[in-house]
Amino acid sequence: MKTFFRFLREAEETGPAAEARKRRLKSDGHGGWLDARGNYVAKTEGKKLRFLSKREAQDEGPVKQMAQRRADDNLAGAPLQKRVDPKRPAKAQEAPKTAKKGKEEEQTSDTELSDALTVVFGRFNPPTAGHEKLLNQAKTTAAGGDLKIYPSRTQDNKKNPLDVDMKVSYMRKMFKNFEDEIINDSEMVSIFNVLIAASEEGYKNVNIVVGADRQSEFESLSQKYNGDLYNFDQIRVISAGPRDDSMDTVEGISSSKQRKAVIEDDFESFKKGTPKSMTDADAQALFDAVRTGMKQKKKVKEEYDLWEVAPKQDPRGLRENYRAGNIFNIGDLVESLNTGLIGRIMRKGTNYLIAVTESNVMFKSWIHDVMETKIKPASKTGKWGVPANQREVGTAAHRKYAQSMVPGQGEIKNFNIREFINRHRVKR
């Protein structure tokens, strides 16, 4: 039996407070929520968290802050005044004079800095020393502003062997300087989810930090839908530096190489791809976790061809299967490994394809940057089904999914389980 205090604690975790914690917001104690820089960005309304426009935040934030300061000073209804310490000389308590700021300095205020967000979106499957370089570049780009790191949500036994919870756990252990910035949010499925959320939270500018080989893809996609899906004054896609799988330096380290090392049972090569700060024991644990996720035995068996697990390590095998029509055919559902977007193939090139999402977002990907998927993206209409992690038994999502698997069944709208049971109850 649940205690009363446990009941209250669980209730807190499922309300607006839970959503606020996901977005790294802090409570002001009066129903308002502050971002990492102390700016008033949202408030609790009923059982929902509502994000404020910049004007609303300016109108409501200072009022609440003023009231709080007056309460602290026990001067409610009176002008704010500075407390005087009788033990200190009066001159020592005078506020220091500040030099008058020029026009250029005024334009780079703290408020404007808080309007910029730096984001990283990637698979990290598994996380590597190369990702450490990526995150360091993101930190430099943020320059003290907000930084959010979102690992992708996809999991399978070939290209994505670690589930998201395990992946996040290892990332926070491997990249301790970014523990608070690594966010495990089930709603951040693609880069568009990230950008839409950032726009709704009031950010005016966004920096997207990616590897050099993905810069053009992110640049074209993010700019194309600015003003439609989200609204930013400026979107910058910044390269974290070149990547070359043929190199033995950090620029050549990749998750693809790490997965190849696992199926070849080559721990020494795998260890070289992890950060220097990672112990042998932790590296071995990650190696074993990837092997388990790939369903590999200790005595390695060729369960997969190399191009299925690490396509960049076997471009010839990938190309041959593509040209033979064994993979990536018109109408197939594919997921971009870089952006997280899921769509149906509408056009095929020599070594690339073009797909369209359910929301009519078109994206182009190299064949080594996509994977076939049988899990359809979620939609409000239920048209395309629901992801596996949303098919919990007893939920409406599971009912819709089960219904979609039965031929001839249409969508049931406004379904009420109690009415259904009562209607079909056997009369005795």
Give a description of the structure.
With 428 residues, this protein is α+β, with helices and mostly antiparallel strands. The chain folds into four domains: 4-72, no CATH class; 111-293, 3-Layer(aba) Sandwich (Rossmann fold); 314-372, Roll (SH3 type barrels), CATH 2.30.30; 391-423, no CATH class. The protein is 35% helix and 15% strand. The protein contains 16 helices and 13 strands. The chain has a five-stranded antiparallel sheet, with no helix packed on it. Strand 3 (40-45) and strand 4 form a beta hairpin. The chain is globular.
CATH superfamily of the largest domain: HUPs
What's the N-to-C terminus distance?
A: 35 Å
> Radius of gyration, rounded?
26 Å
The chain-level structural class is: alpha+beta
Brief summary of the model shown:
By secondary structure, this protein is an alpha+beta fold. 35% of the residues lie in helices and 15% in strands.
Q: What topology does this entry show?
A:
Blueprint: H1 4-14, H2 16-22, E1 26-27, E2 32-34, E3 40-45, E4 48-51, H3 54-72, H4 103-107, H5 110-114, E5 116-122, H6 129-142, E6 146-151, H7 164-174, H8 191-200, E7 205-210, H9 215-224, E8 234-239, H10 255-263, H11 267-272, H12 280-293, H13 306-309, H14 315-323, E9 333-336, E10 342-348, E11 352-356, E12 362-366, E13 370-372, H15 396-404, H16 417-423
Parallel strand pairs: 5-6, 5-7, 7-8
Antiparallel strand pairs: 1-2, 2-3, 3-4, 9-10, 9-13, 10-11, 11-12
Tag the structure with descriptive keywords:
428 residues, alpha+beta, Rossmann fold, SH3 type barrels, 5-stranded antiparallel sheet, 4-stranded antiparallel sheet, 35% helix
